[in-house]
Amino acid sequence: MSSKEVGAIAVILLGGLLGILNSTMAAVATGTLADAFGTSLSTVGWASTGFLLAVTATIPFTTWAVDRYGGKRLWVAGLVLFLAGSLAAGLAWNVGSLIAFRVVQGVGAGLLDPLVLILLARTAGPQRAGRVMGLMGVVLSLGPVFGPIAGGAILGALSWRAMFLVSVVVGAVALVLALRVIPADSSEPGAGAPSRLDVVGLALLGPGFAAVVLALSQTAFALWQVLAPLGLGVALLIGYGAHAARAASPLIDLGLFRSRSFSASVTIMGLGGMGLFAGLFALPLYYQQAHGHGVLAAGLLMAPLGLGGAIAMPLAGRLSDRLGARGLAFGGAVVAVLSVLALTRIGPGTPEVWPALAALTFGLGSGCFSAPTMGSLYRTLPGPMVAQGSSVLYMLNQLGAALGVALVTLVVQTAGSTLAGLRGVFWLAVVSCLVVLALIPLLPGKAGATEPVREGVRA
Question: How many CA atoms, within 13 angstroms, populate the side-chain half-sphere of residue 25?
Fold first, then answer.
């Protein structure tokens, strides 16, 4: 790998880290922002919800735009939008302006997030897909863990505005470096891309996924708050399926799912996102409720979960380029099952070291099946379908993350006690890991023995 490629990969990963850190930092500032603007927690919560919905709704557009306008052009546009939204959010004068500027941030992140996967896959090529996706896994593992820690540290030392202005500084560095090291787009960015945007598909798919994510993000679980957006989202997604079956150039060709390796890969990653975010929400709650720790201490005790993934994913990704995905993923899933089984046994008298070790091994196991799975996905996708495959992967990962958080909230609220609810969450995680184990045989075995996804497939 040349020095130029290494530099481009590093800059792409830096940009990918921006959205994850910003969203997780802002999540810990809800109480501070409510006090600053003199409003309720539910109102200021829309600053995070609006960001998440904007990300989800923008991802399908990126699928089309990356080939129409070029990867570097779209990356720079996403960074500029994210920077503008961050600066404006840091200068917000009331809660309404903050929510609006967070939506602008979310649109920028919705361009950047799937582009990270697309640009990495194109830079690395199929032979190095596992190695590069393993590096991406470091960002995905550490971002959600250290975001709340960094947010708490900033809020403890500075004002809430600094939390958004820090993103401006980091984003400006990423923008300057991107202009220097990311390879230039071709002189004809629209060559080979669809001549027209699938407007009907975009109007159905983006809002459909956003509505489902909104339903899952509701913490009150009032019937209308969940069923109304969930019903709307499902109806829009069914409408997209009917539209894609007859459209000449749908935004995302559902024929992708005819490949068993593709279907297995994106399902495994969706379940992985669900397990990670369930752990990220359940473990701090356990440390606070069972051991009386504060938010910062609980966040630090949660760090082994992300650290395990950050250690395992680069190693497993590199090995999968030579050995294939199936054996590594199977071993990782077994470790993940055993780790979560250990977490079902924790109680008030359990020393903190044991759940921390179980979280570390869960992160190691998850990393060992996630990076090879992502690598196998990009080894089977032909170049013209990388953008569509990346968007499907990211949307299902987002959906899995939202479902993980929703399950934690629902199970804990309906259980007899918080500890009983947390044990129920970990049992659900065991079931999720067992499903991953069942899907792993559908992944490619040895490197090169892949089932390629055919271009032009129709649903």
Answer: 25
> Of 352, 208, 332, which is closest to residue 275 (Cα–Cα)?
332
Question: Using 50, 70 and 90 to split pLDDT, how confident is the model at 129?
Answer: low
**Lowest-confidence region among 85-99, 125-139, 417-431:** 125-139
Contact criterion met (CB below 8 Å) for 411 and 424? yes
Residue with tokens 């949660």: 302
Q: Could you confirm whether domain 1-184 is CATH 1.20.1250.20?
A: yes
Between helix 3-27 and helix 160-181 the angle, nearest 10°, is 160
Q: Where are the beta strands (DSSP E) in 47-164?
A: none
List strand residue ranges (DSSP E) for 63-120, in order: none
Provide the 8-state DSSP code for 440: G
Please state, as a whole number, how many other Cβ atoms lie within 10 Å of the Cβ of residue 4: 12
Predicted model pTM: 0.80
Three-state secondary-structure class, residue 70: coil
Summarize pLDDT for 66-103 with one digit per residue, the tens: 888 888 888 899 999 999 999 998 898 898 899 899 99
Superfamily per CATH, domain 253-459:
MFS general substrate transporter like domains (1.20.1250.20)
How many whole angstroms separate alpha carbon 92 and alpha carbon 138? 32
Phi, psi (deg, nearest 5) at residue 198:
-75, 85
Q: How far apart, in whole angstroms, are the C-alpha atoms of residue 444 and residue 229?
A: 37
